[in-house]
Write a structure and sequence with these properties.
The protein has 339 residues and is of the alpha/beta class. The chain is globular. Helix 10 packs across helix 11. The protein is 46% helix and 10% strand. The protein folds into 4 domains: 41 residues, no CATH class; 75 residues; 91 residues, 3-Layer(aba) Sandwich (Rossmann fold), CATH 3.40.50.1820; 72 residues, no CATH class.
């Protein structure tokens, strides 16, 4: 095959490895430069080539976007947690997994759960990385909005469920998270003040050039063993926020918009929540003290158990998954018996 001449040198169009490298470099450009590079290198592609490229998710996905073959224990897994920041590819990963599952399991029944029906529809179903977008022209499901239902040609069905309609949920689980009265957390307030002053964005973008240093600043308090975290995971968190000054400014706006009143506003709904709720909380978290776990317990009448994980920090579901998974399995099994 003749090499395809691009601004990224020594790339063969048939080489997935080279294409991954090119896309990584492309992701580091600002949005204007990235759009220009894409236009220059795809303007002679035929529609079928573009469709085949977009359909090759398994070849082009980040490692964290592909489902694991086995759980850490070596057994089959029944829960896959994708923990990542904005732009990490969570929606695309979920949509691609559902697409594959539905295509291989005629008659499958799938639940799409989000905060509201509108958000599930706008993001998971009709979004740019949603289920309708990832299917291409072949095998695309039919979206029946009045029924809140996706129906595949082989009989598989996905139904939309919303947290705002808790009676439709079977269970709910919380790990260390924002709670009313603790937004932003005390130890995170200096970062929010930097954002309000407009000083966070340029500092963070400059720091992002040294990924190790950026990881220590951003996640030094979030992981017990930061040195064991795959650099690709760190990049997937930080890149969408600080990969360019424009992105960093957007992140500043996000931080300055945080308002504890938003969480206070949903508290009355939480006081009515009778769905079986499990709370698993790391005790070593600098931002979310274990007292907030018990505050949630006292707020949500459906709480069945509070489990504390000794010394675990904010991202313990990532680095100490086996301190969470057994409790999830017991929680789900108990809910199934009650049902």
């Amino acid at each position: 095959m003749i090499p395809h001449k691009t601004r990224f040198p020594a790339i063969l169009t048939r080489s997935v490895t080279s294409l991954r490298d090119a896309l990584t470099r492309l992701s580091m450009l600002d949005e204007t430069s990235a759009a220009q590079a894409i236009a220059e290198n795809t303007n002679d592609w035929r529609p079928a080539e573009i469709e085949n490229y977009l359909a090759s998710f398994t070849d082009l996905a980040h490692r964290h976007q592909l489902p694991p073959e086995r759980a850490d224990s070596g057994a089959d897994w029944n829960a896959w947690l994708v923990l990542g920041g904005r732009g990490a590819g969570k929606t695309r990963a979920g949509a691609e997994w559902v697409r594959q599952f539905a295509s291989e399991q005629p008659g499958a029944r799938i639940a799409l759960v989000g905060e509201s029906e509108h958000e599930v529809r706008a993001v998971m179903v009709e979004g740019e990385s949603g289920l309708l977008a990832v299917h291409g022209r072949r095998g695309r499901p039919e979206w029946l909005p009045t029924l809140r239902l996706l129906r595949w040609p082989n009989g598989a069905v996905a139904q939309v469920f919303a947290a705002r309609h808790p009676e439709r949920l079977a269970t709910l689980t919380f790990t260390n998270c924002d709670t009313a009265g603790n937004l932003p957390p005390e130890d995170f307030k200096p970062t929010v003040e930097l954002a309000r002053a407009g000083d966070l964005a340029p500092t963070a973008v400059a720091l992002f050039a040294d990924l190790d240093a950026a990881a220590k600043v951003a996640f030094g308090n979030g992981y017990e063993h930061l040195d064991r975290v795959d650099p690709a995971v760190i990049r997937s968190y930080l890149g969408p926020c600080f990969g360019s000054l424009e992105r960093a400014r957007e992140f500043e706006r996000l931080l300055t918009a945080m308002d504890d009143a938003d969480l206070e506003a949903v508290t009355p709904r939480l006081r009515e929540l009778t769905v079986p709720t499990l709370i698993v909380w790391g005790t070593g978290d600098a931002f979310f003290d274990v007292s907030w776990a018990y505050r949630l317990r006292d707020t949500i009448p459906g709480t069945t158990q509070v489990v504390t994980v000794d010394g675990a920090r904010l991202f313990f579901p990532d680095e100490r998954a086996m301190d969470l998974v057994p409790h999830l399995e017991q929680h789900w099994a108990a809910a199934a018996v009650r049902a």
